[in-house]
Each structure stands twice: as structure tokens, then as C-alpha cells.
């Protein structure tokens, strides 16, 4: 049983996804991610990441029997290509410095076979940031979050607490005023170092294990 | 008719997604994005972005009738929260500099109500890069791609050409040896400026219109 990614081109018609999920369920495979969009030429494109597929050839054959389906293409998964994600949120000045540390460090690991993406959004304001942090669970492949700001508390802290309860997300915070640091796994003063450590904490090619540091440690 | 995002918590059981898509099809709504994962406590979490929903209350009521579904939560879409994405790919040295320009510029637009994310992967090697560029279509919300390297051609160029044919993606390339610049909308020598212009080319808050520059212009 293996994991596969399929790109299916179809006529844009309601119910096609329903037909597709019905066939996948019949093959007892799981869908872990889908993304749908309409191409320039009006053709619908459906990307599916599948887990626990027993017989991919039989599955593709059954999918091709749906009359609206034009083609089914098999390729590497998003996880294989873009790998683990680190999300950096906060003010532009800090986010750009953390990103610089993280991208430079990710480059060193990706050269050795890792796949780590560094994704960012410069965003300020208590409610907007709280909403973005809570919505981290909507995003696929996120392994670590870096809080790159100068002052974060209140609703932002509540969001960080909720995300930590629901997932194994690693949270690294810059050293800053505000209650958000109470829920971080690691608090770092230098933004470049925060970016480097975020990558090291999720890289299989690194010897660093954040769990050996203890909780809520400040540097 | 409106767009909504639902987070559905369910018992992890094969066929639940099939039941959900069946109900959504019956309500004549479209699914534009889904992401599924298992929480720490073993509960399945399904995020659905829906388009053209006629009666969201009736839809939620019908979903809650599925016996495996524990809760249905309505909230802002990924697009509302994380907005348009710029993807920067290439070597770490260049990617980090383009990211710095893009993050700093995105900060200025996001403060004025935009939502622009700057997402990156430091990646080298002709085939790995070609695969990552071709897979851009697997990622949601991508509006621009920046090729941040020192030498790109061959398979990478073929991928850029294919992506340009299938989508309206804006492609900005650093000025470099290699055929990849032939298919870029804009070729920029300074990486900081390339990042700034990538943001300006997709920001509604910017007065810059890349289509007014003509094709394949070099700076």
C-alpha cells in the first residue's frame, strides 16, 4: 500500500468530485489533500494526494471510466516536492530577518536531501494575527511556527495555546514583551538565529532535538 | 450565493468524505480546496473551502446529520487570511535576498488591507527545480513565481514554459545565464528589487501593471 498524487483533468461539472471520491472509497484509499482549480482553457484540474492505495493501476483505470474525465496523471506528492513547511508571521522587519536565517539554513539541509519550505506572511494587528495563527491548521505540511514580532499577547496568545493543544506544532518566538512567549517551545532574541533553529528543529539532517531543551527556554 | 470555509471534526472512518461530498453536490455547491488531517487526539479534521453556497445553514444542518460528524465550524477562508502567494525558488543566497525585498514590500501593502504571503523553497539541481516549478499548479492561491538562481535552463525552462501556457502566473526571473529568462515576464538584476516588483505586480494596492511593460523586459 502506497501514497500517490494524481492530477485529473475533467469537464467542469458538478458532481464529478463526488464520483471520484466514491471510486476512491471503493478502493479503500484515503484522500489526504485535494486542490481544485479551473485552467485558462476552461478545463477543471483536480489534484489528489492519496494514502494507502492497494492497486494504483486499477484505481486509475476506474477513474478513467468516468465520462467527464479527460486524463489522469500520476506524479510525486506535494510533500515529496515541497516538504515540511515553517510558517513565519509578524511584522515585516522581523519576518524578513527570521526568513533570511531560515532560508539560508534550509538551503544547507535541502542540499543534503531534505525538503524544507520557508513560508511567511507579514501581518500585524492582534485579531488578524490571532486568526492567521489559528488557521495554521488549515495549511498542509506545517511543522513549525515562528512568531516574529515585537509585541504579541491577548488573542494571539489564546490562538497559540489552542494550536499547541491540538497539534505537535513546534512554536519558536522572538524574545519580546507580551504573554505569547509563555506558550513557545523556545524563545530566541536574535531573529537570524530563530530562523536557523526553526529549521534545525524540524530537519532530519540536523542533530538538534528541541525536546531535549526543556520547556519555554529563553535565549 | 457565497463562499465559505468549514472545519468538520469527524470519527476517522473511510467513506466520510464521500458522504460529505455527496451532500455538498446535492446543495449544488463547489469544493475549491480541502485539507484533511488527524489531530493528536485521533479526531479527523476536514477543512473545506466552498463556492456558490445557496443556503449555508441548511448545508450545515445536513452535514450534522452524518452520524460520524462531531462538529461543523464556519470561518474565514484561507484566501481571506493568507491571501495571494508569491513562490520564490532557487539557491539560498538569492532566495533569501528576494524574500527580504518581497516581505518588506508585502508588509507595506498588508498594512493597507492586502493579504500577500511570501513562500519560498531553497532548492538547486535541474530536475528538482523543474519538478518544483511544474508542481506550482498543485499549490493554492499562487499568483507569481520568482526564479531566484544564478543559472537555470534545460528542464527548468520547459517547466516554466508549461506553467505559463496553463495559467496566468506572473514569472519574474533574476538576470542570469540560461534559457529560463526567455519565458519570464520580467528579468531583474537586483534580487531585492525582484522581490519588491513581484509584490507590486500582484497587489491591488499598487499602481504598477506588469502588462504595460511589454514582454520579456530586462532591467
Number of helices of chain A: 7
Shape of chain A: elongated
Distance between the termini of chain A: 45 Å
Q: Note poorly predicted spans of chain A.
A: none
Nutshell version of this structure?
The structure is a homodimer. Chain A is an alpha/beta fold and about 220 residues long.
List the helices and strands and how they pair.
Two copies of one chain form a homodimer.
Chain A: E1 2-10, H1 16-26, E2 30-38, E3 44-53, H2 56-64, E4 69-75, H3 78-82, E5 84-90, H4 92-110, E6 116-122, H5 126-134, E7 142-148, H6 155-166, E8 170-174, E9 186-188, H7 191-202, E10 217-218
Parallel strand pairs in A: 5-6, 5-7, 7-8, 8-9, 9-10
Antiparallel strand pairs in A: 1-3, 1-4, 2-3
Describe this structure in words.
The first copy, chain A, is α/β, with parallel strands linked by helices. Chain A is 35% helix and 30% strand. The first copy, chain A, has seven helices and ten strands. A six-stranded parallel β-sheet of chain A has the order 6-5-7-8-9-10, with helices on both faces. The first copy, chain A, has a four-stranded antiparallel β-sheet with strand order 2-3-1-4, covered by helices on one side. In chain A, α4 links the parallel β5 and β6. In chain A, α5 runs parallel beside α6. The longest helix of chain A has 19 residues. The first copy, chain A, starts with a strand and ends with a strand. At the A-B interface, α1, β2, α3, α4 and β6 of A face α1, β2, α3, α4 and β6 of B.
